[in-house]
Design brief:
The protein has 486 residues and is α/β, with parallel strands linked by helices. It has two domains: 2-323, Alkaline Phosphatase, subunit A (3-Layer(aba) Sandwich); 343-483, no CATH class. It has helices at residues 2-20, 56-63, 78-87, 117-123, 182-192, 211-240, 268-271, 296-304, 368-371, 374-384, 425-441, 452-465, 469-483, and strands at residues 32-38, 66-72, 127-133, 137-139, 167-173, 247-253, 272-273, 275-278, 286-293, 329-333, 343-347, 351-356, 403-407. Strand 3 and strand 4 form a beta hairpin.
Length: 486
């Protein structure tokens, strides 16, 4: 009976392999799949054009594989992005779009036809793990906005798998968060042996060149440098264990840098991420210019492991032979901790359209997490001192336009809104319609306001972890604005 069972299992994988053979280059045996996921980090790497620092390990990974130049997250905040990534689904389609939602008594359950990627690997015989890496292996961040069975992970490190068993592993890297923790930043700089010089650093035009902001930018780049070193150490471990050539390595970040126009917003600073994949049977040194979404990593990983993708999964196998590139990518921002918002965007190669559903609120709504970050403190100080120009003052507007339209070819920094330009009317209407169709076809749950009972449930749990009068004040303001129809 055991022999028959083994033959049936082998036949199962052969049939799947045949079905996938036209879709993805496949190595001779099932490869290990490793996701390296850094937090709060934009593509400030040499292979993406960063010239202020050197990132030899990630550059080498890109040179040995495929680099996607235009990769974007579907949500620029940790938990919505990670909820989407681990399911291969838009967070808006599965009700996981509010940051840190479902943490109170009002739980969120996934739709019945949605399964976590590690569970799919586990069912196919893979060992699954999720670990952190700073300064040593530990349980890795999940941050999913829904209930899930933790048994989908067999452990925190692939070293405890059975001999010869392939693994699907995630390693969570602190990434950009290192810059906000003084001890971690000091430790990182000690390991690096140097500090990024701040005086000549190039800044986006929407940030003033004050000493505090330049210092924060230098800290951001030092976080990139130490992350590059961590990636190098992980690759060296794979090499020393003799499994590097049997492992497909993905490197991405969960969203862009945590700065004023980055994390929590749908400008490219918040949504544009690195996306690199390297491993057996993949092209070497290939640079892809087509648009991809971070959820596509799920579909590509399953295909590489010869595992059938669920029919309902929205991710696409971007490594498939004959793959038809997306003509646009979509992103969504909803409640972030206590701060209520509702923004949607569609981005093509040239154009970005943003819909602000709460135009009567400021861009910088009160948010305890972000208001206490050094970059925001420095930016507000610069504005108070009259050190910002008209472009740098945009983020301080007390209201927003209902629609924003940017020509990314002429305005890559997204500072000239063309939504009211009559000559761009046709483009505006086309993108507005495209976004509306996407919202309807993907069943965007954000079209229905979050029930107050769920908000209260989540906020009670949130305040229970971090008692803070500022958060309570912000919650009261959010409720007041709802009552006022603002």
């Amino acid at each position: 009976m055991k022999r028959i069972s083994t033959l049936v299992t082998l036949l199962h994988f052969v049939l799947i392999a045949v079905a996938h053979s036209a879709d993805t280059p496949a190595p001779a045996s099932r490869p290990n799949i490793l996701w390296l996921i850094a937090e709060d980090m934009s593509p400030h790497f040499g292979c993406y054009g960063e010239k202020s620092i050197e990132t030899p390990n990630i550059d080498s990974l890109a040179a040995s594989g495929v680099l996607f130049e235009r990769a974007f997250v579907t949500g620029p905040i940790c938990s919505p992005s990670r909820s989407a990534m681990i399911t291969g689904m838009y967070q808006t389609s599965i009700g996981a779009h509010h940051h840190r939602s479902g943490v109170g008594v009002e739980r969120i359950k996934l739709p019945a036809d949605v399964e976590l990627v590690p569970r799919l690997f586990q069912q196919a015989g893979y060992y699954t793990s999720n670990g952190g890496y700073y300064p040593a292996v530990r349980k890795g961040k999940t941050d999913y906005n829904f209930e899930y069975d933790e048994s989908c992970y067999d452990g925190i490190d692939w070293k405890t798998r059975k001999p010869g068993q392939p693994f699907f592993a995630q390693i969570q890297l602190f990434g950009g968060k290192i810059r906000d923790v003084p001890k971690q930043l000091a430790d990182a700089r000690a390991q690096l042996g140097s500090v990024t010089a701040k005086d000549d650093l190039p800044l986006p035009p929407y940030y003033p060149r004050t000493p505090a902001i330049l210092e924060d930018w230098a800290a951001t780049l030092d976080a990139v440098r130490i992350t590059d070193r961590h990636v190098g150490e992980i690759l060296e471990r794979l090499r020393s264990e003799g499994i590097l050539d049997d492992t497909v390595v993905f490197f991405i970040t969960d969203h862009g840098v945590s700065h004023a126009r980055g994390k929590q917003f749908l400008y490219d600073e918040g949504t544009h991420i690195p996306f690199i994949v390297s491993g057996p049977a993949l092209p070497r040194g290939q640079r892809r210019h087509d648009l991809v979404e971070h959820i596509d990593m799920a579909a590509a990983s399953l295909a590489l492991a010869v595992i059938a993708k669920p029919q309902t999964m929205q991710a696409r196998n971007v490594l498939a032979t004959g793959y038809e590139p997306r003509d646009a990518v979509f992103s969504a921002r909803d409640r972030a901790d206590e701060t209520v918002d509702h923004i949607r965007s569609v981005r093509t190669e040239r154009w970005k359209y943003i819909r602000n559903f709460f135009p009567n609120r400021p861009y910088l709504q009160p948010n305890n997490y972000k208001d206490n970050k050094p970059c925001l403190i420095a930016l507000r100080a610069a504005e108070a001192a009259g050190l910002v120009d008209d472009i740098q003052r945009l983020i301080f507007a007390t209201t927003r336009p209902p629609e924003e339209l940017y020509d990314l070819a002429a305005d890559p920094w997204e500072v000239r809104n063309l939504a009211d330009d009559p000559s761009r009317g046709e483009i505006l209407r086309g993108l507005r319609s495209k976004l509306q169709v996407w919202m309807e076809q993907t069943d965007d749950k954000g079209r229905t306001p979050e029930p107050e009972v769920r908000y209260d449930s989540d906020m009670a749990a949130y305040q229970g972890r971090k008692p803070n009068p500022e958060i309570a004040k912000n919650i009261a303001l959010m409720k007041q604005w709802v009552r006022e129809g603002r």
